[in-house]
Description:
The complex is a heterodimer of chains A (142) and B (426). Chain A is α+β, with helices and mostly antiparallel strands. In chain A, 43% of the residues lie in helices and 18% in strands. Chain A has a single domain, classed as Sufe protein. Chain: A (Alpha-Beta Complex). In chain A, α2 crosses α5 and α4 crosses α5. The radius of gyration of chain A is 14 Å and the shape is globular. Chain A starts with a helix and ends with a helix. With 426 residues, chain B is an alpha/beta fold. Chain B contains 12 helices and 15 strands. Chain B starts with a strand and ends in a 13-residue tail after the last helix. The interface between A and B is medium-sized, with 35 and 34 residues.
Amino acid sequence: MAYSDKVVDHYENPRNVGTLDKGSSEVGTGLVGAPECGDVMRLQIRVNPETQVIEDAKFKTFGCGSAIASSSLATEWVKGKTVSEALTISNTEIVKELALPPVKIHCSVLAEDAIRAAIGDWKKKNNVAEGAEAPAAAVAAH
Amino acid sequence: MSNEMSNNGVVVTEAAGTLPAGVKLPIYMDNHATTPMDPRVLEAMLPYFTGTFGNAASRNHSFGWEAEQGVDKAREQIATLINATAKEIIFTSGATESNNLAIKGIAEMYKERGNHIITQVTEHKAVLDTCKRLEKYGYRVTYLPVQADGLIDLEDLKRAMDDGTILVSIMIANNEIGVVQPVAEIGKLCHEKGVIFHTDAVQAVGKIPVDVQAMNIDVLSLTAHKIYGPKGVGALYVRRRNPRVQISAQIDGGGHERGMRSGTLNVPGIVGLGKACEIAGQEMAAETARLTELRDYMKAKFENALDYVHVNGNMQHHLPGNLNMSFVYVEGESLLMGINDIAVSSGSACTSATLEPSYVLKALGLGDDVAHSSIRFGLGRFNSKAEVDYVSDKLIDVVSKLRELSPLYEMVKEGIDLTKIEWAAH
């Protein structure tokens, strides 16, 4: 199978790899997928408590090249956005940007889940009321 | 050195001058899938495409006779390699056809005697799917489990046999994990019970000694393209004495191959198969020693450089050129992506059409996550030590890089038990 140039680029030069302090109240952690399925993504965000802007994002992913690229791209996209802006990122945009083939769409779904799970965790820690968007916890249980 | 992938997935190598001596990219190390033709085989075949093009079934002119001589010689060469007689060799289009012909042909021929067939869960699909079809026709099939090392338990086989058992079909060597079954003992058991013993010997013939007499094998499938011969030609050994085995033809027509397999013989392919068997027999001892050393060297390099590596399958009863290893906490397809100038296989779901990890690895009781992390190395006649070094060094680099990316590896290093985590069902 041939990979798109963008998937290869993210695979070879993944952005924002790493770990944030999950004990910090400013950090939200989303861990989605399962080892048995061959995909586990952990996406973390650090949110400015005043502005609700995501100032940093890190990821680690166990999965195929498309899964790595999807989560790498997700960290790039959430950085600089407010929490509610980040919740508007959808998997179809990831599919489009990375030119994922149909068999890899689940990778983009997982990346969207990871963003929502990380935000959900941050909201829970900070007792932030849910907005108009779907409760993050329910989405994470996908 | 940098690589870039063109649209059709072909690796373009730049700065090839920086490669170690003796290494040319891409490297082929997937010799269980198929093998390149040995130039000596091609040389033997070439005359049979043009000058000696006759139909081996033409009885009344020299073109036919010459073609028949080529076929007869090949029959002898194949028979010699497995200690059979030339008359016991039936030519087919390959091992899938050989397996279909053996299993369906025996089931049909002996249906008055019984309707029970025994095989094992780690067989190739050409055997498993053939058995599944026979189940639809009313046959009973027992799929024996394997132990954690990939070997069947002979006691399981004994228990599975009943008065209706007509056929046992157990492969010699597995195509994924290289594990070699105790075929001589299986054959002995079958003969004691009067049951026909078929074996899919595709990965074993030409690689390890196969002796249909000593091993009590009644019917055996083999193919040319796994032993440096051409694709599209295989053979079925069918025992003629002690006991005489009969097979119902599955392809009807001109009555070729003693009525068991009609169709004009693929003379150049058959000549190539014969030559490939002859070379394999002559070089087997030296090649076994060479490949075993390379394989063990590669395994040791991985085990010394990396933690959490897992060897799949029993290493004592094993094909010389096979190494199946799981690089745990790294997903197989992402690993293959990082070594795209090297041809190997993965048991990862992501590399299959079904999104299911290898059923062979799952049969060993491995968790799906370990199966997802597996790589099959298939060393062959044309692989060198320099290539083994290049492949293992590159793989160690990529595994290390991907583990830096792996949340699972980080968690395990922190002492977290991954089995205790409630993973979201995806």
